[in-house]
Amino acid sequence: MTALEDALPGLLGHRDRIAPVSMREMFRGDSGRFERFTARSGGLLLDYSKNRLDADALAALVRLAEAAGVPERRAAMFGGEAINGTENRAVLHTALRAGPDAVATVSGEDVMPGIRAELDRMLAYAEAVRTGAIGGVSGGFTDVVNIGIGGSDLGPAMATRALRPYWAGPRVHFVSNVDGAHIADTLRGLEPGTTLFLVASKTFTTTETMTNAATARRWVADALGEAAVGRHFAAMSTAQKRMADFGIERARAFGFGDFVGGRYSLWSTIGLPLAIAIGADGFRALLRGANEMDRHFVDAPLGHNLPVLMALLGIWHRNVWGYAAHAVLPYDQRLDRFAAYLQQLDMESNGKRVTTDGSVVRWATGPVVFGEPGTNGQHAFYQLIHQGTDVIPTDFLVAAEGQDDLPEHHAQLLASCLAQSEALMWGKTLAEAEAELIAAGMAPEAIAKLAPHKVFPGNRPSSTLLYPRLDPAMLGQLIALYEHRVFVEGVIWNINSFDQWGVELGKQLAAGLVGAVQTGDPPEERDGSTKALIRAAAAMRAR
Ligand code: F6P
């Protein structure tokens, strides 16, 4: 029996006890509910009072975190133990943002001097690109194109978009998809003589990235000659030799350790495009913010610890109430890639079906994560969240203050965010819907028909993360918060959150199909559908 299985009967008892009480009643009966169910760290406020939870249920969840060994696993992670068992690797992305006096060891070796040296090199290069001190054959770089996918794209791309007010220097673009449309559309209109390519790949073997990098290399060589290629490429990887084999000079090759997982690599030299966009000071502020969250995660008692609380709510919703999805809704347009980033962080980490020792789990693990910035999502999928048959716990993220000197916009944005969480929690009864229609002068027969459609069940859970403004340090805190939340959930589910074997089979199968797709002649041993689709695609091309 795992700690989760031990705790489940008790947690289900809490659920059954709480189930008949609506959140409306909880708020009516407890004027201190907001204070009781909020936690703060470094200017960030987590309001989780709009969840179907009370103090006893929360205490039981905190006991579960203790029984599952969250403090010990946390110490093992920060201590550089090889907690990624299937790859026999330490998990030390936290060292990348550690303070000046930190020591972090992997197999007895202090990795901090290497991390600091590589960060300094990377930031000096970023500043030189930014200011034009380093340029291409036709002068200072006007455009930087990051080529990478998964963790070598989503984190930097999300953070770069999020920090638009801090941009200076060249435009920064991101190409990830092997679909030629992505690189073709990005290169259209760019000037080869002032374009810098960053090839970002932890392994430097990923097909999509290598295909796009080869295309970019040809584009530069065709326009400027082979001799110019070196000046127009830099790379970030753990694979020093492969970078060199691609033709990247040592001065423009930035490394990091294999104790940094791909989806946790934004803080490493993989952050170069972001550092070019926001500068070295901005990047260091991002690291400081993340480090502040790390220290909170390590030091705060579990019941006041933001990542732990958010993880426990995740367990509560997934394993006790049986909710299969989780929405993340930033009321912050610049976080428009946050959900996509989080999908990799959460679903690649916790989308697992076996425990750390390889036995099949007997409980649900990671939920489906999705989201869009509010208010756009309101006019799309919120209908289902409010009135659909599934309950979808939701995180709202919003800044107290906008950064664009358009206060009337921000007032509407913030009001919309608060109204959505209020509507989810409060709902609207049939009697309330009818009363509104009576007040609007509608005939009783019409009211009887329409009113059921206007009922909101309410009692739908959400948490709100409120922060002063989205600056680099706050973004660092937010990302680290979600990283640790995913970690704590993984500990309680007893799964390895740091491998990703589930992405391998598709890659393997695709590798064996490329030739067949080109010739239209599928291998006999493939299944009937795949063979027929290959032939159908070839026939369509021939027409
Ligand atoms: O999709 C699997 C994966 O290995 C991710 O975990 C990783 O972020 C991505 O591919 C890219 O890998 P790399 O940085 O090695 O190119």
- Total of DSSP H or I helical runs spanning 4+ residues: 21
Terminus-to-terminus distance: 61 Å
Q: How many beta-strand elements?
A: 15
Tell me roughly what share of residues is in helical segments. Answer: 40-55%
Shape: globular
| Mean pLDDT reading | 97
How would a crystallographer describe the biggest sheet? 6 strands, mixed
Strand order of the largest sheet: 1-2-15-14-12-13
Poorly predicted runs are none
Beta-strand residue fraction: 5-15%
What are the SSEs and their pairings?
Elements: H1 3-18, H2 23-29, H3 33-36, E1 38-41, E2 44-47, H4 55-67, H5 70-78, E3 105-106, E4 109-110, H6 112-131, E5 135-136, E6 139-140, E7 143-147, H7 154-162, E8 171-175, H8 180-187, E9 195-200, H9 207-224, E10 233-237, H10 240-246, E11 253-255, H11 272-299, H12 306-320, E12 325-331, H13 338-350, E13 368-370, H14 382-387, E14 394-399, H15 407-426, H16 430-439, H17 444-450, E15 462-467, H18 472-493, H19 504-511, H20 514-519, H21 528-542
Parallel strand pairs: 7-8, 7-9, 9-10, 10-11, 12-13, 12-14, 14-15
Antiparallel strand pairs: 1-2, 2-15, 3-4, 5-6
Helix pairs in contact: 1-4, 4-12, 6-11, 7-11, 7-13, 11-18, 12-18, 13-18
The structure holds 6-O-phosphono-beta-D-fructofuranose (F6P).
